[in-house]
Amino acid sequence: MFIFMGVFFLLNITVLMANFIDPRCFWRINLDEITDESLGMSCAFILAAVQTPTEKDYFKKTLNVLKTTKNHKYALALVFAMDEINRNPDLLPNMSLIIRYTLGHCDGK
């Protein structure tokens, strides 16, 4: 019986340690985000899934407005992937992915 209790305790050590480690790491991440100077100058966007089909050239404006800079390369990759998903009706039937820009300088300036 004591062997089973010992094995059970050893298996749960990582769970017990995770409770002590997470808050400090989370606090460190939050401090880094607050002191980051470039957050106010970035572009924020929201992904949404809608039940209506989108136009074929929905992302044309986005791809023409955003410049291919270091800051926008991930957004361009995301837009390209969303465009490919929207063109294939087998991936998301009866739904479309759209992107909405909310904050920041999304025009690449």
From TrEMBL:
SUPFAM superfamilies documented for this protein: Periplasmic binding protein-like I
Alphabetic keyword roster: Signal
Signal peptide from the UniProt entry: 1-18
Superkingdom of the source species: Eukaryota
Keyword Signal included in the entry's annotation: yes
Transmembrane helix in keyword set: no
Annotated protein name in UniProt: Vomeronasal type-2 receptor 116-like
Organism annotation: Mus caroli (Ryukyu mouse)
Lineage per the UniProt record: Eukaryota, Metazoa, Chordata, Craniata, Vertebrata
